Amino acid sequence: MNFVKVKSPVSISGGIEGLDDILWPGVDLTLWQRERPEALGWLDAQDWDAVSDVDSIVATRDVQGEVIRLLQAAHYPSGVQTTALAGEVAELATYFATLMGCSSLRFRLEIVETDGCKKFHADYVRARLLSTLSGQGTEWIYAASQSEAPQVERMAVGDVGIFKGRLWEEDPAILHRSPPIGASGERRLLLAIDPAGEAA
What we know:
alpha+beta, Jelly Rolls, 2 helices
């Protein structure tokens, strides 16, 4: 593949294929801006005390089947709701695995209600796919603006982003964080996918 010099470290698109741009040198964040699928609207009314976080390694050969089993074990609603959520996760996981060239992934579906990840940072992975499926989206800034008053950007609910980590780029140009919601009582459902076997 022949690469050209990229002027911006952020690539924004309206389709999933735009996420491929993360492979380009100089691109540290690819964003697929989209509406959250209608079939996931029920998540906004979900009782988060009734379900558990999911954190597991899944093989790409049967992502949807494995995700359904994990969601059932975490007490997500049975039937079409869980099937829709599993289908969403499986589509993104399969795409990401193909992009990263890996046969297994670390898949997390976390209910976030604290400020535990409120500092802007880059993860110690090759790359991380993030999508907020309910609640406030992940925030990001240009690393070069840290010492100033940075303009904070926020992914919308349903958006999908792939952030380069420190195992790919020692000093990524883009940093991200969870929005500080600890004092608000809000909760958010965050999907995170990494290549398996890499540090968090």
